[in-house]
Amino acid sequence: AISFGVEGVSSARKPFTSKLKKLLKKYEYNKEEVAIIGDQLMTDIKVGNAVGITTILINPISDKEFIFTKFNRFLESRKLKELEAKHLFSKDNFYD
User: Which one of 2, 29, 35, 49 has the fewest CB atoms closer than 10 angstroms to its CB?
Assistant: First the structure.
């Protein structure tokens, strides 16, 4: 595993914002100092946007997923197509 010297949060209960807001307050971070990196539009990116922090959508790192995640992926694919059609999201040289 690669270590970047940053803390991660497990059991964040995404897309609910309470834990993320609590962490921002606990560590006295400004929203401009924090980013959330995630592979799910409907949870990771949604909670980051709701709190007002930078969001980074990455490709999934595993093919094994819970049934709820598979359902989210279905909804996510439809939403990404909709956003691409409106030119609000695109895959460029940073994505594959």
Answer: 2
Query: Is residue 77 packed enough to be buried (19+ CB in 10 Å), middle (13-18) or exposed (0-12)?
Result: exposed
Lookup result for tokens 């949604």:
46
Q: What is the pLDDT of residues 26-69, one digit of tens each?
A: 889 999 988 888 888 888 899 999 999 998 888 888 788 888 88
| DSSP string for 21-88 | HHHHHHTT--GGG-EEEES-IIIIIHHHHHHT-EEEE---S-S---HHHHHHHHHHHHHHHHHHHTTS
Residues 21 and 13 sit within 8 Å (Cβ to Cβ): no
